[in-house]
Design goal:
It is a single chain. This protein has helices at about 5-30, 45-75, 90-100, 100-135, 140-150, 155-165, 170-175, 195-215, 220-230, 235-245, 250-265, 265-275, 285-295, 300-330; strands at about 80, 85-90. Helix 2 packs across helix 14 and helix 12 packs across helix 13 (about 285-295). By secondary structure, it is an all-alpha fold. The radius of gyration is 31 Å and the shape is globular. Strand 1 (about 80) and strand 2 (about 85-90) form a beta hairpin. It has 14 helices and two strands, in the order H-H-E-E-H-H-H-H-H-H-H-H-H-H-H-H.
């Protein structure tokens, strides 16, 4: 058999093998539509499934958030006491709001809550998350201890802390008595009532902060810590130069969440623990709005105050978000 015959006989096999390779490679490619784009299977089915899951939340959001907001906007232009017919008031409720010294005082006390609560909550939550993230023998017990506020309702927590702060039988005064400190009437003293309520709110807010920080900590590459160890960095330097910068995204989110929480979520706690007293020292803006609506039955004015508070929350959240984003971009 000559070399030319051998090549002729091998050519069909080579062509067949080559054709098989082409067919297999083409079989693995996604089918393309007439426009040349790959076909996406299940796009419509995915959209229907997403709509099914999202619709209940959208309905609840519309019924309990959007609809009350629209009603409050309309009522803010009326005078109404819940019994008679609403009377058109125009913008008088808004003019009254900006001249109301009691409202501005309540807003100032709300700012005190923010100053005393937001930053300590974020920093303490970060430190506790770092502690919980370490593999220690007693870390399981610590996690249970720190997450207790999440499974206790706000009302129950407020009642429990009222007992803790009690002057004669409270746990806090009992502990201070061991060190010779005289009993303090925490919730009935204008100088101590607001810090005492703020401490309770910090305790109540810590579980969410710890959870989000734990999620951020577990996303930090371990190679960064290994490189830090090789460079001879100590625990404190590693904490503030590696751990803290790498959770900046979670920090920005938590500052916004806690700002909104302390701006509007202090109502229930102060209502149960102090009713805004003593001498209005713990009366925040949310509680002031509640008293206007359901103690004085001034629904129109309370609606205007509610919209004012909503605008403050939106503006503050947007401002904090823009500020933290700018800081992160400069640091990167």
């Amino acid at each position: 058999m000559t070399s030319s015959q051998t090549m002729d006989e091998a050519t069909p096999f080579a062509g067949a093998a080559e054709g098989r390779v082409v067919d297999e490679s083409s079989a693995t490619r996604p089918r393309r539509s007439g426009s040349g784009r790959p076909r996406r299977r299940g796009t419509r089915e995915d959209g229907v499934s997403a709509l099914v899951f999202v619709t209940p939340n959208l309905v609840l959001f519309a019924v309990f958030i959007l609809l009350p907001g629209v009603v409050a906007l309309g009522l803010s232009f009326f005078t109404w006491n819940l019994t008679g017919d609403p009377t058109w008031a125009g913008i008088r409720n808004y003019e009254r709001m900006f001249a109301d010294q009691a409202m501005w005082s309540a807003l100032a006390r709300t700012c005190y809550f923010l100053v005393l609560g937001v930053i300590p909550t974020v920093l303490i939550g970060f430190m506790l998350a770092v502690l919980i993230n370490v593999n220690l023998a007693a870390v399981g017990a610590l996690r249970i201890l720190f997450f207790i506020p999440m499974v206790v309702s706000v009302a129950v927590s407020a009642v429990l802390w009222t007992r803790v702060y009690a002057r004669d039988s409270g746990l806090l005064n009992a502990v201070l008595g061991w060190f010779g400190v005289p009993s303090v009437d925490w919730l009935n003293n204008p100088a101590t009532a607001l810090p005492a309520v703020t401490l309770m709110l910090v305790w109540l807010s810590l579980p969410l902060v710890i959870i989000l920080y734990l999620a951020a900590l577990q996303r930090i590459p371990r190679e960064l810590y290994e490189a830090s160890s090789l460079d001879g960095a100590g625990p404190i330097r590693t904490l503030w130069q590696i751990t803290w910068p790498n959770v900046s995204g979670a920090t920005a989110l938590l500052i916004v969440i806690q700002f909104v929480n302390f701006l509007s979520g202090t109502f229930e706690v102060t209502l149960i623990m102090t009713q805004g007293g003593p001498l209005r020292s713990t009366e925040n803006l949310a509680l002031y709005i509640y008293k206007m609506a359901f103690e004085r039955f001034d629904i129109g004015y309370a609606s205007a105050l509610t919209l004012f508070q909503s605008v403050l929350i939106i503006a503050a959240a947007a401002g904090i978000r823009a500020l933290t984003t700018g800081i992160r971009q400069r640091s990167s």
